[in-house]
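Repro:
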Amino acid sequence: MCATLQPPAKALIISRAWRWIACAWPLRHRTWARYAGDMDHVTSWGSRLRETDLRARLGDVLSGAAFGAVGAMAMTGMRVITTELGLVEQTPPQAVSRQRARGLRVLVRRAPRKQRRGFIEAAHWAFGAGGGAAFGALPRGLRRHRWSGPTYGLVVWLGFELGIAPVLGLSQAKRVRAVDRLALAADHLLYGLVLSATRSGRS
């Protein structure tokens, strides 16, 4: 036979049970509240991290655009020397202006004759800025390498030789002048060296 609990014993058990519930219920709520607070903190930290990363990437793109414009200006200076020495017959901006590149004839004709050279050169600097922005958008791990900038400059040069020049119908795509092309490759190498300043830790 099971012994029955006396009324005082039942009352003691019920009292302790209610006391445990009274203590555990707020603790459970406090635990869930603390968990929710931690999750809010993690979410807020993740948002700040994404915002910081976005700002850093935007800064790299803007920095790349600035250095790209400077690199294009450096190319202009180098081309003054190579054209005067007879190493380059026509620079790409000169070829676009003088050969009336297909697709750009209307734009070239709209510019006043006296200002045409400046217009073409400004377009070249803008193109350099765009190329620099594209370089700045590359992953930092890729741009961190020492030769990433010069390699990028040579890729841009190959893009002109194999893509832009044939599409525009420039004579550079039809005639093979080793010295001319080596000189143009050299000024694009200079462009890439200027872009190297945007490598992680330098910009």
